[in-house]
Amino acid sequence: MNREIFFRAASEYGTPLYLYDLGEIERRIKRAKDTLKSLDFKIFFAMKANSNPYLLKFIHAYGIGADAVSVNEYKMALFAGFNTGEIIVNGNGKSLEDLEFYIAQNPLCINVDSKEEIAKFGNKNAKIALRINPDVNPQTHPHISTGLKENKFGMDFETAKEVIKTLPSNLKMVGLHCHIGSQITKIDPFIEAFSSIEKFVRSQGIKLEFLNVGGGWGIDYKKDGTEMDLDGYRKIVVPFLSTLDMPIYFELGRFITASAGYLVSKVTEVKRNSYKNFVILDASMADLIRPALYDAYHEIEILNDGEEMIADIGGRICESGDIFARSRKIKIPNPGDLAVIHDAGSYGYSMASNYNLSLKPAEVAFDGEKLILIRKREKFEDILNLCLEDEDENI
Ligand SMILES: Cc1ncc(COP(=O)(O)O)c(C=O)c1O
């Protein structure tokens, strides 16, 4: 993205600010579809990655469905124009109230996370898919691995066998589901997971309307070429999935929106002690928690053309872990310079919090010409309102 766009966005809407390049989202969708084109497939966007309704509408226009993990994500999908038949429900630990809502909605399918969840349906009719935990190492950060037996998600093959054998007649099992983790760059874990599911399907002689293989495609955060091996996926995984002879569903999140998003912030202070240089931004872990939570790497660009230095880049939160990058080589900034954090379009705003009573940033989309405000900056009054009793102005 052209530097001038960052300056324009910051001066019109202030910082910190999430800025999304719609052209990049379109390119990512095209790349995914191109990789899968020889398959009978459908992509569902994992809304947990980014649930801004403007972006959801934009993504929906490319024939993509929605993967919702909460009642509120489901409602947001409806608001953004997805039909119930285009929404898949995910999530573990669904409450009875959650399930009641989903069942009444009659979505494309509810992914059941456990044997225990089956009992919560009572005698209500629903289309379900069983989430299988194939016990495969996705070779990613432990906090975003979901398909190992020590992870809380899904059921093992033995449990699935038992669930299928004892499935009440009000539940129609239309598919199987698995999602082994996120930010995966190699195809081996996918092959291992899908092969064991294929063996299971054949051994059980079950007829399915689809197989849902989840998401997890990794992106090139470090800009060193390490990203999901799409070529390998197209040449090896896709032909394997074709042999299953049924539609294959994908729940992609990160791959679609991460590289389209930037967290645009301002340098508030350049601080030096005898040991280190620190660059402090007006953004923080409250806006983008991935570095603090997962030690995640994000490229950070200081929009200034001066000399370089090595510094830790941190946020304005009272917390030692509020560091975006350690010992990073950057342009020596002056207070007021813009610092742009790249690849923040997935698990950025959607994981933002009000820690230290931070106000959530504005979100702006760039359509190649104009900037469009797609979410206003939060105000202190928005937070205070939740604490006021009716007619109480005196907190
Ligand atoms: C069930 C499920 N599906 C899909 C996704 C999307 O993953 P990604 O953003 O890595 O594609 C997730 C992410 O955690 C998930 O838990």
Oligomer: single chain
CATH class of the largest domain: Alpha Beta
Main β sheet profile: 9 strands, mixed
Number of strands: 17
Which parts are unreliable, with pLDDT below 50 for 5 consecutive residues or more? none
CATH architecture identity of the largest domain: Alpha-Beta Barrel
Query: CATH superfamily of the largest domain, please?
Result: Alanine racemase
Q: Level of helix content? A: 25-40%
Given helix and strand content, the structural type is alpha/beta
Small-molecule components bound: pyridoxal-5'-phosphate
The helix tally amounts to: 12
Rg (C-alpha, Å) = 22 Å
Task: Classify the beta-strand content into a percent band.
Answer: 15-25%
Distance between the first and last residues' Cα: 45 Å
Number of domains: 2
User: Average pLDDT across residues?
Assistant: 95
Order of helices and strands: HEHEHEHEHEHEHEHEHEHEEHEEEEEEH
In words, what does this structure look like?
With 395 residues, the chain is of the alpha/beta class. The protein has two domains: 3-17 and 259-387, Beta Barrel (Lyase, Ornithine Decarboxylase, Chain A, domain 1); 83-252, TIM Barrel, CATH 3.20.20. Helix content is 29%, strand content 24%. The protein has twelve helices and 17 strands. It has helices spanning 3-13, 22-36, 53-60, 71-79, 96-105, 115-119, 157-165, 188-204, 230-242, 254-257, 290-294, 380-387, and strands spanning 17-21, 41-46, 65-68, 87-89, 109-112, 126-131, 171-177, 210-212, 248-252, 261-272, 277-281, 300-302, 308-314, 323-331, 338-341, 362-366, 371-375. Strands 1, 10, 11, 12, 13, 14, 15, 16 and 17 form a nine-stranded mixed β-sheet that branches. An eight-stranded parallel β-barrel has the order 2-3-4-5-6-7-8-9. Helix 8 runs parallel beside helix 9. It is globular and about 65 Å long. It starts with a helix and ends in an 8-residue tail after the last helix. The relative contact order is 0.16. The mean pLDDT is 95. Pyridoxal-5'-phosphate (PLP) binds at residues 46, 48-49, 67, 90, 146, 179, 182, 214-217, 251-255, 346.
